[in-house]
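Each record in this resource describes a single protein on a pair of labelled lines. With that in mind, the following record should read easily:

===
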Amino acid sequence: MHQLWTTGMATLSGKHYQVDGAIGRPLPIQDGGIPLWIAGGGERKTLRIAAKYARFTNFDATPDVFRRKSEILARHCKDVGTDFGAIVRSSKTSSSAKPTQPTRLTRCGRITGRCSAPARASRH
């Protein structure tokens, strides 16, 4: 994609795909093509691919794992000649408040339509 987004044409002879003179116009307005966001924390492949191509990454939110993945990404960046500081790193967090029974039933009803008790929304 990088070749296509920077030159407007691409040729590839890969194991599974072959492309000869594919045209991609108009070119993206961003220098270097569309910025890629690569999410995942695979230490050997995903983070190495991110080091080569990503402007943005996203991986585990726990501080220890985030720190470890960042260190591995930094090593991959050094290996491939990418500025580690130019890659924006982010993490995803999830949280859930324990819902009340009426709220749980309302959500269940919306999702499955098969709750045993009637769904009632609580108003406070």
